[in-house]
Amino acid sequence: MADTTQTTPNRLTLDRVRSVWALIAAILAAVALLDPDNLGSILTSATTSLARTTPYIAFAVLLIAWLKAAGAEAMIAEAFKGRETRMIVLAAMLGGLAPFCSCEVIPFIAGLLALGAPLSAVMAFWLASPLVDPPTLLITAAALGWPFAVGKAVSAVALGLFGGFAIRAVTRTGWLSDPLRVRQNTGCGCGPSPFSGRPVWRVWTEPDRRTTFAREARTNALFLLKWLALAYVLEALLKSYIPADLIATAVGGEGILPIATAALVGMPAYLNGYIAPPLLAGLMDQGMTAGAAMAFMVAGAVSSIPAMAAVWSLVKLRVFATYIALGIGGAILSGILFQLIV
Q1: Exposure string (b/e) for 112-145, b if CB count within 10 Å is 16 or more?
Q2: Are 192 and 74 a contacting pair, CB within 8 Å?
Q3: Does position 253 have pLDDT exceeding 90, yes or no?
Q4: For residue range 150-188, what is the model confidence (pLDDT) as tens digits?
């Protein structure tokens, strides 16, 4: 569930961008004031990392703009047709491909549940979609390498399958029947639901789609640049000022405890899928294990504010609690398995 699309008015979007750049400027000004000798190394580290990631950013921007202009969200609805087992598998696999913002996913999921799509398939989509999409996959590869990026993608699908089939088993007992909250309006003011329509892949043939492509490319480029600039500045600060022994003590070493600790810390500490990979790269350089890093990323993505808000706005408390439990449990399992593999 990519949250790169800005659906707020242009002025609010500009204010948000300015606030991020202002935060970066404030951080660098503080370093210049308190530790001027270290400012040069921090700037060099951040700009070098950002430059290394630029090709990934460019490809991600073009890809997400094309998917949005083509209306690719419409094909995701096809995963929710047919037998329940087929729906769960397809929903888990396609969850990471949907270029939804956190606002657009609300009417989409509400429409699916209202039309009778089983909660198991919806949960599979919900668990998989915050973890990976084309931009975050490429940024993860740039910061942490392709083995980690592929491991994250596999974890997303596996978590979706795990959650989907777990919900299927539980719903047969009747405990999660009638999952939806009572709602007067399933929309959120973000435009038409992407549940209907057909994708048009030749976006250059229609003026409206060309306009959408240009708008999405511009918006997403600005979005990714601002957050990655902040991420690499924070990574440079982390390497400079956080003792490696401290990181190694908390989330280093063998066993399940560091992985479980990283998963629990990831819930409140996670920012978004664009900042997390560079920060984790810094933490791994300081002694964090690969399994703990994977658990942090999986748990943080599932429990991020946009992901939780989308779930909370639609379903009752017991369904929401089940979503969180599956996310944390799946994050710990993902971390353990990834640690064993690498």
Answers
A1: bbeeebbbbbbbbbbbbbbbbbbbbbbbbbbbbe
A2: no
A3: no
A4: 999 999 899 999 999 999 988 887 777 777 765 444 444
Domain boundaries, the chain: 10-341
pTM: 0.69
| Position 205 pLDDT exceeds 50 | yes
- What is the C-alpha separation between 283 and 285, in angstroms, rounded? 5
What b-and-e string marks burial along 60-92, b requiring 16 or more CB atoms within 10 Å of the CB? bbbbbbbbbbbbbbbbbbebbeeebeebbbbbb
Residue 256 Cα distances to 233, 259, 326, 331, 334, angstroms:
31, 5, 17, 12, 11
Listed as own residue / partner, the contacts of 312-319 with beta carbons closer than 8 Å and 24 or more positions apart are: 313/106, 313/181, 314/106, 314/109, 314/110, 314/113, 314/180, 314/181, 314/183, 315/179, 315/180, 315/181, 316/178, 316/179, 316/180, 316/181, 318/175, 318/176, 319/119, 319/176, 319/179
pLDDT digits (tens, 9 = 90+) for 302-312: 876 666 766 77
